Amino acid sequence: METSISVNDLPSKKFNNIWDEGICYSEVNNIITRKKSPEEAYKWIGNFQKNFSNNLEKHKDKINNNTRNKRCRDLYYIIYDILYQLKRLEGYNSIYSGIKENIKGFINSAFMNYSLRDSGYMNCLPASINEADYEYGNGKDKKYIDDLGEDITYIEKNIDQINSSHECSKIKAYLEEEFYTRNRIYQLNNEIYEKILGYYEKNNFDSFKDIIAKIECTTSEDSQQKVHLDDSETRLDFLPSHIIILPILFLLGFLLIFSFLCKLTPFRFGFNRKIWKKLIFSNNADDEVSHKILEHSSEYAQTNSYNDEYKVLYNSVADT
Prior knowledge:
13 helices, 75% helix
C-alpha cells in the first residue's frame, strides 16, 4: 500500500535540519544571540572541522537523492548568514576574514574528498558558487523562497498523491501561507530573487500560486472533517433553545405547585393577609406621594406664572 504524503514529506520540512549537526548550528547561534567573545567563535571553528565531514557521510544518501544542488545552496545560505551576523558582533570585524576562510576551507576539503567518488560534488565546492548570491544579509529570505520553489516542484510531480493524502488540506494550507509570506518579500525587490525562480524554470512568482491551486483534496478524511464541522454547528444552533426552555419549564412547575398549596392548605390565608396589608400600605403610600406631587405641581405652576409675566414684560419692553 502506498504511503500517504504528509506535510513533513515536503522537502522544506524533510531536509530543513540536514546541515545543523555538521556546522554545529546550535553552538554558533548561541554565540550570535548571546554576543559571545571571539574566543568562543574559535572553539566553534574547531568543532566545525571535526563534525562537518562526518555529517556529510551521515546524510550522503539524502543529499545524493536528486537534491544535491539544492542541499548545497541551503548550506551556503546558512553559512553566509552566520558569517554576516558574526561580522556585526563587537570585536569580530578584524577576525571576520580569518573565520570565513577557515570555514570555506573545511567545506572545500570535505567536498573534494567526496568528488573523487562522485563528480557531482564539484558543484558544491566554494569556488563553484557566486558569493554575491549569498553574502549580503538576505540569505534567509533567499532560502525561504528557494524552499518554496522546491516544495512547489514536489507538489507538481506528486499532485495525484497529494490530492488523495489524508493531510491534503494541511498541505494546501501550509503552502498557501508560505506563498503569501514569501510573496511579500519577493515583491520588495524581485530582481534579487529572480535567479531562484530560474532554478525551477519559472518566469514569475505567481506561477507558484497556480500550482497550489491545482491541489483539490479528494480524501474521505476531508469529507468527514466537513461533516463533523457541520454537526458541530448544528449542535451549537440547537443548544440555546435548551438553555431557554429548561428554566421556563422549571418556573412553570414551581408556580403550579405554589398555586396548589395556596388552594388546599391554611398557608393561603396567612399569605392572603400579608398580601392585603402590603396592598393597603402601598395604596396609602401612593396617596401620600400623589399629594406631595400635587403640592409641588402647584408651586411649579405658580413659579411658571411669574416667569410668564416676566417674559411678557421683557418682550413688551423689547418691542418698544
